[in-house]
Amino acid sequence: MKMTRLQWSGLTILLGLMTFSLLGILFSPHSMSEQNLDAILEAPSATNLLGTDHFGRSMLTRMAHAVGLSFALSLLCMLTSSLVGTAFGVWAVWGGKKVDNVLGIVVNILLALPGLVVVLLFAAIAPGSFWVLYLAISLVQWVEYFRVVRAVTQGVIQSPARQSSQMMGFGHWYQFKRHIWPAISPSVFTLAAFGGANAILTMASLGFVYVGIQPPLAELGLMTVELFPYYSDAPWLLAQPLVVIALMVFAFHLLAGKRA
Amino acid sequence: MSVLLKLTNVAVYVGDTCLLEPISLELKQGQPLTILGQTGSGKSLLAQAIMGLLSDDLSMSGDVEVFGKVMSIDERRALWGKELVMLPQEPWHSLDPLMKGVDQVKEVYQFVREKSSQESLTIAEDDLRHVGLAGSGHKRPDELSGGMAQRLAITAATAGGAHVILADEPTKGLDVSRRDGIVQLLQARSNLGSLLTITHDVAVARQLGGLLLVMKEGRLVEQGEATQVLDYPKDDYTRELIAAEPSAWSDMAPTSRQDSAESILVADKLTLERGGRVLFDGLSFTIKQGEVVGIVGDSGCGKSSLGDALLNLLPISAGSIVRLNQAAKPHQWLKLYQDPPSAFSSSVSLGQLLDDLIFLHGIDKARIAPLMARLSLPHGVLDRNCMAVSGGELQRFAILRALLLDPVFLFADEPTSRLDPITAKEVTALLVELASEAGCAVLLVSHDPALVRKTCHQIITL
């Protein structure tokens, strides 16, 4: 698969943000929760490159952790949901009518509920748990992969090319590798890029309404709501998580490319 | 005889490359003109150039004169329907899929000829009766067979009363009996004006008569009276084209087949249904080792379904299919497909596909080179994927791949219907020859009885 210039720039932005996060976590002299009440709401300076928040904590350290957390969640969700969705999508076509019907019912139930409501439900059961968030978001996202993969695979399964491979004695894995995967991979990659952006947005939304990751951990949505009261005193602080969220979503959309 | 259409040095270019070399011709009233040539010989470009339908990246030079007047593209477009009409290749693409057949003809009378709605309907029904579609006027195009749809498309296209009719491969993909009907219809429809037909089918050219132009790779190679050119061809290419007609083939069926050969498959009182319709019932036959068996019949009669059923790709409704050759493995019962590109994965090169097969079945690599030479496949095709190889080469590669597995039975489903006549002849000959050498039985499906007659030991008519 060849990437366009725009896709490369999307990838570059993402890699840049990841590097920032890694370096910040590893080398920052301040810890994420270290307070310094003598220096609150400070503007960026040589000691605190991104300033300090309302408890005098280093914004750089907190941003690095928050970005890392967002990436970890979005990549995990992306991986899980694409794997599960693709596997079930192919299985639905290959496994015959019964499998298809059962999977169809499950998917319809999930589709009948708005995605954010499902995630909110899970988050309310176990507030602040990263793994429950991850489960909930993956549960919502795999459906999309399933539907696209199933639709494309149906055509491939019927194709003379696959039929011919089967007659020549090739096994299921070979048929998947040579016939099904080449047909679905562009769609799966595109969905994955959008899915990554959605996972970040969902996590930030939950943080913003206080049901996501809990303080004192740093999370982009949570930081936004914490810094909100100080928007006129220290607008540069509120701007940081917002700009980073926008940048991450933008980069993922660039990576997704033109074709949907 | 008045000249209806006159081309002077018409050529078509893409950028600086010449696709169609300058050509001049005259279409006279009452004298049909036929352009004969293989696909890719620029025939369709010529028709598009006359109509003014060339796509934007193509440019055209030369003059097109209609009714004695040189006309620009816009002027010619104004004549569409009333004076100048083109019948497209595939009727499905030119008919409205949602509208009843009779209405599609009626609308031409109503809006092009500006008659009243009632009068138009009467004439339209009349027209359909003339072309044998009396009972089918209320059907939508998808309920019609290929031949019926083509007749409907021709009726609708010519209802405007055009004097110049351009027909681009009007008989493509039709059975022989249907093909003759279409040719007669075209002749009847054009007796007031004139007909310019583009075809790769020598038989069609012969039936239409009139003037004949033979084209090869965008160049005119021969022209003259149709009977003259076809009976006494001067150019090698014309000769090749004529010789590629199945009825002109020499008998290919190897005579070495012995009655003592072992039977490999027995079908007993076979019945096949599809979509609730019985395709055939009570069909019994035996296929022997190394035998070439042909299936003929009109389209939609279940030729391909029978082959698929023998390969266990379709369930049978009644009867039995017994494979007597117990030693043969499942992968030695194979199929060759009608549309070569659709039978290969385009994700990797053909060489990779071959390597996969060699790895799976532990085939001796040394067998490939001699077979490729026999099939005259250049070594370069292995580096390309199936989209970058011509249809003929791909079908020969399919034969190569099948033969490597030492098949006992090969079902060839119209293996040459998408190929040019010359290539089709080569491929069929190679298939029959190599399969007989390998002792592999071939089930050959074709809509052309002549082809089957020349190549098969046993013929099953459905």
From TrEMBL, chain A:
GO MF annotation terms: dipeptide transmembrane transporter activity
SUPFAM superfamilies in the record: MetI-like
Cellular localisation: Cell membrane
CDD domains: TM_PBP2
GO terms for cellular component: plasma membrane
Keyword annotations: Cell membrane, Membrane, Transmembrane, Transmembrane helix, Transport
First and last residue of the signal peptide: none
Membrane topology label: Multi-pass membrane protein
ABC transmembrane type-1 domain segment(s): 67-256
InterPro entries reported in the protein's UniProt record: BP-dependent_transpt_permease, MetI-like, MetI-like_sf
TM annotation in the entry: 6-27, 67-93, 105-137, 188-213, 236-256
Family membership: Belongs to the binding-protein-dependent transport system permease family.
UniProt name for this protein: Peptide/nickel transport system permease protein
Origin species: Marinomonas polaris DSM 16579
Automatic annotation (TrEMBL), chain B:
Keyword entries, A-Z: ATP-binding, Cell membrane, Membrane, Nucleotide-binding, Transport
Pfam families, sorted: ABC_tran
Family: Belongs to the ABC transporter superfamily.
Nucleotide-binding in keyword set: yes
Domain ABC transporter residue range list: 5-242, 265-462
Localization annotation: Cell inner membrane
GO cellular component: plasma membrane
GO molecular function, one term: ATP hydrolysis activity
Entry membrane topology: Peripheral membrane protein
Major localisation: membrane
Entry protein name: Peptide/nickel transport system ATP-binding protein
